[in-house]
Amino acid sequence: MKVDIYSDIACPWCYIGKARFERALAAFPGADEVTVTFRPFQLDPTTPDASVPLYEYTDRKFGPGFRDKHAQVSQIAKGEGLEFRMDKTRAVNTFTAHRLLWLAGQEYGRDVQTTLKNTLLAGYFTEGADVGRPEDLVALAQRAGLDQARVAEFLAGDDGTAEVREELEHARALGVSAVPTFVFEDKYAVQGAQEASVFLQVLERVAQETAPSPVPGGGGDCADGACAV
């Protein structure tokens, strides 16, 4: 089963949704047959390239009352075993971090990309890392198993830029307007950080509906069709 997860590093619900989906996947009998790919999405492409404290950024944009929302989502994250330190978080444009995730998927595979995604989220929400700063990205990538020299070389160039822009445009074309959005088999879209039980139900349903049907009179499998979301 193919699952594409559209999400942003700067999205707290994406971190929570990832944790809940992974809990559901661990309970799903067919987990070994599920391939997960993280796709880019930017909640705010206008966020500056030079990082600023998150509270300072959201105070200017939404007013100080928005800190209550930070506190609420931090409490929900705690219930998923995630520690949010919004007082340390730095708001910054996430495009370069998405390029790095693209590199991980291309050269290291989906498992390493998943590890890197988690490392970037933890860096952003817990550790106060600047995920737009090459030096911080190199350190986080190395921790996730990527080669330090290769990452530094990659970030110094523009490889992956066109591809990430194309994927962002593809997300818009699909109608993805909020994240996280989970797309199963290019057919079924689930939006939001649903409870693990909901994700498990979706996995089971998609597995049933996409299971190959036996060919009458033979032992072969029928191919499944797919449609755009």
Topology:
Elements: E1 2-7, H1 12-27, E2 35-40, E3 52-53, H2 54-62, H3 67-79, E4 90-91, H4 95-107, H5 110-127, H6 134-143, H7 148-156, H8 161-174, E5 181-184, E6 188-191, H9 196-209
Parallel strand pairs: 1-2
Antiparallel strand pairs: 1-5, 3-4, 5-6
Mind explaining what this structure looks like?
The chain has 229 residues and is α+β, with helices and mostly antiparallel strands. Helix content is 51%, strand content 10%. The chain has helices at residues 12-27, 54-62, 67-79, 95-107, 110-127, 134-143, 148-156, 161-174, 196-209, and strands at residues 2-7, 35-40, 52-53, 90-91, 181-184, 188-191. It has a 4-stranded mixed β-sheet with strand order 2-1-5-6, with helices on both faces. Strands 3-4 form a two-stranded antiparallel ribbon. Strand 1, helix 1 (12-27) and strand 2 form a beta-alpha-beta unit. Helix 1 runs parallel beside helix 3. The longest helix has 18 residues, at 110-127. The chain is globular. The two termini are 16 Å apart. 35% of the residues are buried. The model is unreliable at 217-229 (pLDDT under 50).
